[in-house]
Amino acid sequence: MATVTERDPKQSYINDLERLTAKADMPDWLAKVRASGRAAFDARPWPHNKLEEWRFTDIRPITRNDFVTAVQDAGVEPDAAYLDAHRYGVDGWTELVFVDGFYAPGLSRQGNLPEGAVATGLAEAIAANHPAARKHLNQYAAGVESALVALNTAFLLDGALVHLPKNAVCEAPIHLLFLTTRGNERRAFHPRALVVLDESAEAILIETHVGAGGESFTNGVTEFVLGANSSMKRFMAVFEDEASHHLSTTRVQQLEDSRFKSHTMTAGGAIVRPELSVDLAGEGASCDLHGLYMTAGDDLVDHAIDITHTRPHCHSYIGYKGILDGESRAVYTGKVNVPPDSQQTDSNQLNQNLLLSRKATVTTKPQLEIYADDVKCTHGATIGQHPDKLVHYFRTRGIDEPTARGMLTYGFADDVVKELEVDEVRARMEDFVFNRYSPSAHRAK
Fold first, then answer.
1. Taking the CA atoms of the chain, what radius of gyration do you get in angstroms?
2. Are the beta carbons of 94 and 174 closer than 8 angstroms?
3. Residue ranges of the chain with pLDDT lower than 70?
4. In terms of Cα–Cα distance, which of 146, 136, 127 is closest to 190?
5. Residue 4: its pLDDT value, please?
6. Is the dihedral of CA 40, 306, 161, 235 positive or negative?
7. Residue 408, Cα to own-chain centre: how many angstroms?
8. How far apart are CA 354 and CA 164, in angstroms?
């Protein structure tokens, strides 16, 4: 009788790591960072349903399949139309393009950066021994007890580095465009980004993650380091193919009086889970986190947000909205931690969900863990469909039902989209939402 060997769900990654170790040429400090990631990946289990934070998200469609990770730049350029559809192409903007996880300088362009500022590929920055890369890379992601973050660190080859020195103000946005190309095999990508703002620096960052199609697994990690009195406005969009999986972890470290404003928009993907963790580590720091997720078919999107008010006199806000259609599912977890010494904390969060289908489901868990007594914290959540009375009101004014529902859906989403402060980004997202929920889209159902 033949013996059946049990498959190791980590083996394909281990094989690729062995190939990478044999090829990679890197400084000693980076080799130690990658080795720490490899050791942590070996020691930690994959996320599973017995963990409270993963109770409603099953990633076995990822772990039960073998994905191949590229260990060098294949030199494949994306289709020009595919690339141009996701550029902004605005004069003065810096746009860095990454293809299958690797920086593509020939497809990128430098814009109007202030003196001393750097926006480049991470591999180039490491080769040049850039001090921000050496000082900050993996200092904050290393604290995440996750096999996914460890795997990303083990494969740390390239990515993006953005650094603004003290008092630098970058008025033109910096766009990081991460593209994947279509392949004949299941492929894994581990994009990395490090964004460092020194004291009183200001920047606007746009991240776009797009899948070209086919079954793929993107496992991203981004670290933000905000110095005292610095300001970061960030917009992240994830538009994946229906067969692709996108898991990402973002860590934000804020010093005193720093300001972090984030917008996250997700649409598409078999499994999409952006984790966002903010440490308000300096007195007077603030963060405003906004999000819009749109699901259809059998998509699953899981937003996991964690804010720690490490120091007193800090402010946080979370406002996320979801629109669910088909048999899709959404999970929202918003956790705010207030330790005993974090007095004068001000925190608010609200998660609102609109169900366009009776088969769509959402699990929402806004949470507060408060151990200080001089605080002002609120949280809430709503789930529902368009009120029949409101649809009826539109119809009595001569508006047919599909048009009424489309207008109401667009209005629900636009509360988030209109908060985008970059005109070009807001216009693109408004068009996307309108085209997705226009009356013609509703009539086609």
1. 22
2. yes
3. 1-6, 22-24, 439-445
4. 146
5. 45
6. positive
7. 27
8. 40
* Cα gap 442→445, rounded to integer Å: 6
Sole residue written with tokens 């013996």: 3
CA 57 to CA 54: how far, in whole Å?
Answer: 5
C-beta separation of 159 from 143 below 8 A: no
The residue among 109, 108, 111 whose CA lies nearest residue 78 is 108
Nearest to 253 by CA among 290, 282, 283: 282
The whole-number pLDDT of residue 368 equals 94
HEC string of 217-262 equals EEEEEEEEEECCCCEEEEEEEEECCCCCEEEEEEEEEECCCCEEEE
How far, CA to CA in Å, does 15 sit from each of 18, 20, 35? 5, 9, 15
Give DSSP secondary structure letters for 322-336.
EEE-TT-EEEEEEEE
Which residue from 119, 128, 115, 121 is spatially nearest to 101, judged by alpha carbons?
121
Structure tokens at 381: 């959540």
User: Which candidate, 354, 364, 358, 360, places its Cα nearest to that of 433?
Assistant: 354
Q: What is the pTM of this model?
A: 0.94
User: pLDDT tens-digit profile of 274-332?
Assistant: 999 999 999 999 999 999 999 999 999 999 999 999 999 999 999 999 999 999 999 99
Number of neighbouring beta carbons within 10 Å of residue 60: 12
- Three-class DSSP category at 81: helix
Pair 202, 231: CB distance under 8 Å:
yes
